[in-house]
Structure to design on (349 residues):
């Protein structure tokens, strides 16, 4: 699954799932452009980890809620690389509010970053994908399932999944594959923002047939596959990475790991 | 130590615009909580301040921030480090 010689932009690529994707694509030989929002030190550290894999890594600060900043980011990419082969729309933000508490500021912020920015990035990336390419959008199960205080993010992810389908058809003649990876709750720092109860992850584990929570590397593995030519006939699909969680019914418990039911962490 | 008036005025405009309060309610002793700023407000304030002054404020920098006076001092420190 070599991505050697490819240039990949990973939005929000410095930490959590984004970092895992950045390092996985770097491991496959892709030069990586890491977009970050505010934490330069973290972005530098991820870039250094990517460089240690023998690829070029470049960081760009940009607040994706602003179209002008997205323009500047792509101007820099055009100047430094002149091309792009892979776009991973991973950056996400959002306010944790119920529908009745959600105000217009929170709605705009969340939708601008999670749904509008992937469209704007795709519009600016496509002219740089002269030899075709791949666009991967990172979604979550909250696009279909109802989770506490996840209203704005869930809605934005539903929009992102619809965008995935529209882009996949529109860009197919250009040799650009567009797909999404949708994950269950992934064990990252961001998860803590939505889970006040520190004991809550346990039910997530016991209700997941695979017997463990999704790790950032699980998502990165799916992204790397979708970036490869092996995924050429997968278009506009939402690949769910959840260890089977979304298929289970209420009251399901994963088999005891002593019975050999637990899968290995990647 | 008195704050740079232009920095303070700019911060006052940014903060009160985002938390939707009249500039007359801005006090150096006020905290973000006093303005009823939620986490999104704080992020938007930081982004606006960084863009306006051409600085980057890291989480480490915010450890010394307890109210508007120390926030302004933090911004002035970052501006002077840039020069």
């Amino acid at each position: 699954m070599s991505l050697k010689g490819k240039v990949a932009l990973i939005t929000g690529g410095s930490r959590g799932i984004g970092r895992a994707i950045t390092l996985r694509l770097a491991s496959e030989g892709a030069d990586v452009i890491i977009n970050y929002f505010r934490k330069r030190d973290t972005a530098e550290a991820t870039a250094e980890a990517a460089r240690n894999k023998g690829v070029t890594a470049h960081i760009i600060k940009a607040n994706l809620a602003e179209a002008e900043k997205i323009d500047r980011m792509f101007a820099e990419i055009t100047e430094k690389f002149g091309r792009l082969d892979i776009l991973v729309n991973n950056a996400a933000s959002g306010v944790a509010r119920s529908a009745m508490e959600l105000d217009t500021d929170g709605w705009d912020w969340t939708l601008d970053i999670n749904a509008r920015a992937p469209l704007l990035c795709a519009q600016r990336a496509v002219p740089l994908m002269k030899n075709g390419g791949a666009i991967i959008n990172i979604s979550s199960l909250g696009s279909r399932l109802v989770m506490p205080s996840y209203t704005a993010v869930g809605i934005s992810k539903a929009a992102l999944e619809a965008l995935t389908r529209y882009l996949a058809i529109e860009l197919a003649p250009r040799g650009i594959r567009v797909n999404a990876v949708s994950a269950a709750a992934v064990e990252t720092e961001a998860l803590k923002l939505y889970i006040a109860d520190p004991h809550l992850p346990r039910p997530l584990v016991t209700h997941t047939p695979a017997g463990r929570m999704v790790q950032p590397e699980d998502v990165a593995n799916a992204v790397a596959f979708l970036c490869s030519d092996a995924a050429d006939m997968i278009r506009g699909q939402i690949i769910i990475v959840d260890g089977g969680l979304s298929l289970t019914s209420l009251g399901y418990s994963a088999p005891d790991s002593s019975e050999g039911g637990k899968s290995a962490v990647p | 130590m008195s704050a740079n008036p232009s920095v303070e005025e700019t911060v006052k405009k940014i903060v009160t615009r985002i938390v939707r309060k009249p500039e007359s309610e801005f006090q150096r002793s006020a905290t973000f909580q006093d303005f009823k700023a939620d986490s999104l407000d704080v992020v938007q304030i930081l982004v606006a301040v960084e863009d306006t002054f051409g600085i980057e404020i890291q989480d480490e920098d915010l450890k010394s921030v307890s109210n508007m006076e120390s926030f302004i001092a933090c911004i002035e420190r970052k501006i002077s480090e840039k020069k």
Q: What stands out?
A: The domain at 5-82 of chain B is CATH 1.10.1200.10 (Non-ribosomal Peptide Synthetase Peptidyl Carrier Protein; Chain A). The mean pLDDT of chain B is 89. The radius of gyration of chain B is 12 Å. Helices of chain B lie at 5-19, 39-53, 59-62, 68-82.
